[in-house]
Specification:
It contains eleven helices and nine strands. The protein is an alpha/beta fold and about 300 residues long. It folds into two domains: about 210 residues, Spore Coat Polysaccharide Biosynthesis Protein SpsA, Chain A (Alpha-Beta Complex), CATH 3.90.550; about 70 residues. Strands 1, 2, 3, 4, 5, 6, 7, 8 and 9 form a nine-stranded mixed β-sheet that branches. Helix 10 packs antiparallel against helix 11. It is globular and about 55 Å long. The chain starts with 6 loop residues before the first strand and ends in an 8-residue tail after the last helix. The C terminus is likely disordered.
């Protein structure tokens, strides 16, 4: 890796004229000399394109896409940097993030990625942003199966060597909400090594329109369906690492319980009962299947 490797930041955006200016400014404010910022707009009509046209130092394009992760994949194909990060159009990088990432990856040449801490902020009545949560757990930064399935994987606080995508592949645009989580699961299964960073590098900004950190996501049926699809696929995968299989079963059970609770809250009693029975049957079948596949234990005296 060169002394100051180029860092490519990819920002997908659609109709976010009210917030993207601060996101762009947070990249320009970094104390790191080699940065390219690629913005992929999905055909905004609210003034976002005009803001991009007037912003300095951007590479950008505006055209229809198939959603957030299709836009990110377009950005990946344009990226020239040795290191790649993902900035949402409604969030910001914190000062010093890029320097910390470049230094950590230079000091750890075997690492495929680096991850710092993140904060979640909510807008206060006076218009300022107040931190409501700080995520600094080293296990989350390094990635473990629990944080990938039922936790918060803080994808945007992660920076990847660009050659990692050649090994792991792109984000799967089939998943509108959960493609980043699916990509990280795939990456960890492939053995991705992540070096944790001490500094906070990213600020998520909590609001109703966010696709990443959003209090309304817990009732988002489309998100639940995507989680169930990924968890179910993992449960059906032969030779899955034992830790991931346990995490997938727990994830599937939690999402099915959430779905059943949602259905019961809407007085959909028959669908709620069917959901609960399906969950019990699927998990029990998975446990029996895992037990049959496990090697017999020989007692030694």
């Amino acid at each position: 890796m060169t002394a100051c490797p180029l860092i490519s930041i990819i920002t997908p955006v659609f109709n976010r004229a009210d917030m993207i200016g601060e996101a762009l400014a947070s990249v320009r404010a970094q104390d790191y000399p080699e940065v390219e910022h690629i913005v992929i707009d999905g055909g905004s009509s609210d003034g976002t394109v005009e803001l991009l046209r007037g912003a300095p130092g951007l590479r950008w394009l505006s055209e229809p896409d198939q959603g957030l992760y299709d836009a990110i994949n377009k950005g990946l194909r344009l990226a020239r940097g040795e290191i790649v990060g993902h900035l949402n159009s409604d969030d910001i990088y914190l000062p010093g993030a890029f320097s910390a990432v470049a230094a950590a990856l230079a000091e750890n040449p075997a690492a495929d990625a680096a991850c710092g801490g993140a904060v979640v902020a909510r807008r206060a009545p006076d218009g300022s942003w107040k931190v409501v949560r700080t995520i600094e757990d080293a296990r989350i930064k390094r990635l473990d199966w629990h944080s990938l399935t039922r936790g918060v994987p803080i994808t945007n606080a992660r920076f990847f060597r660009r050659n990692w995508y050649a090994r792991a592949g792109d984000y799967d645009p089939h998943y509108r909400f959960a493609a980043d989580r699916e990509f990280l699961i795939r990456s960890l299964m492939l053995g991705m090594k992540t070096v944790p960073l001490a500094p906070l590098v990213y600020r998520y900004r909590l609001h109703g329109g966010s696709l990443t950190i959003n209090e309304n996501n817990r009732s988002n049926r489309a998100l639940i369906d995507e989680y169930l699809e990924i968890a179910g696929r993992l449960m059906a995968t032969p030779d899955l690492p034992a830790g991931l299989r346990r995490a997938a079963r727990a994830w599937y059970a939690a999402e099915m319980a959430r779905l059943a609770w949602q259905q019961a809250g809407a007085h959909e009693w028959v669908p709620a009962g069917r959901t609960a029975l399906t969950a019990i049957g699927r998990i029990a079948f998975g446990q029996r299947r895992a037990a049959r596949a496990a090697p017999a234990r020989v007692e030694r005296r």
